[in-house]
Amino acid sequence: MYWIDTHTHIYMEAGITQQDACMERTLSAGVKKIILAGVDRNAVKPIADFCARHRGNAFAAIGLHPTDVYENYLDELAFMENMLIDVNNGSNNSNGGGNCGSRYVAIGETGIDLYHDKSFEKEQEAALEAQLQWAKKYNLPVIFHVRNEAGNDNAMRKILQILHSWQDGSLRGVFHCYSGDTGQAKQVVDMGFYLGIGGVLTFKNAGALPEVVKQIPIEHLLLETDAPFLAPVPYRGQKNESSYLPLTGHKMAEILNRSAEDVADITSRNAEILFGI
Ligand SMILES: [Zn+2]
User: 110 C-alpha to center of ligand 1: Å?
Assistant: First the structure.
């Protein structure tokens, strides 16, 4: 039995020593594989370096996060697509991005975030569509980030609308840190995407999430930490890390009235199928 953390930013830890100590704790906690989600150009090299040091346990994604979309987003995307082509073709390193261990296993995170700032809303959508194009072209799954403006569900409605028009059966991916309602969760899985379930599941005010976990078949669920953010109880409010993933897994098992072993086996298999790891 082992767990897989399908979304972490372990490379944001300051310094290689701390990062590697964190990976030791992660492996000791039974979390055998982790996926490092990209956010911007600056994350590319730290992710590549980490994955090269932890080959077989750490896997790289590359993408432009919606809150990192600014005027220069086309340059950022061009840099990333070149990196993706180089690395996944095996030619590696030619533009200083480092060696990502083997190859990129996903695109992301990308999506729509209207929580902090709506001024680049159109550019966020354009960046998302560019990355959906990569997903089709390079046959890779996508890690979606969605965050609504406070008080409505505009970002979720927008991304569902965009994906409905793009999904021709060839797109695969996960809605990371899923926080929508059950009806939207059904639309997500009907389109063939997975739901990433994070530490919020352990919170007292977990909202609709426990109900979503009950209503959506476990074959469509993945586990994640989003470390260093959103630590599960009893570490809520502190810095999160991948070694805390089993706390969320055990909570899922409790909600579903299944064994932790079942939840680990099934969610790990889901992750292995989606990301080809
Ligand atoms: Zn993230």
Answer: 9
Taking a 5 Å cut-off on Cβ, the residues next to ion ligand 1 are 37, 226
pLDDT at 99 > cutoff 60:
no
User: pTM of the predicted model, to two decimals?
Assistant: 0.96
Helix (H) or strand (E) holding 148: none
Whole-angstrom Cα distance, residue 269 to residue 54? 20
| 250 CA to centre of ligand 1 in angstroms | 22
- Taking the centre of ligand 1 as the mean of its atom positions, its distance from the CA of residue 179, in whole angstroms, is 13
Tally the residues of the chain.
Answer: 277
Residue-number span of the structural domain to which 134 is assigned = 3-275
Residue 91 has pLDDT above 80, yes or no: no
Q: How far is the CA of 3 from the centre of ligand 1 (A)?
A: 18
pLDDT digits over 195-214, tens only? 999 999 999 999 999 999 99
Amino acid making up residue 150: A
Ligand 1 centroid to residue 39 C-alpha, Å:
7
Distance 109 CA to ligand 1 centre (A): 7
Per-residue pLDDT for 184 more than 90?
Answer: yes
pLDDT at 275 exceeding the cut of 50: yes
C-alpha 161/C-alpha 140 separation (Å) is: 21
CATH number at residue 224: 3.20.20.140
- Report whether the peptide linkage leading into residue 129 is cis, meaning its omega lies within 30 degrees of zero: no
> In the predicted model, what is the mean pLDDT of residues 250-267?
98
Q: Report the domain count for the chain.
A: 1
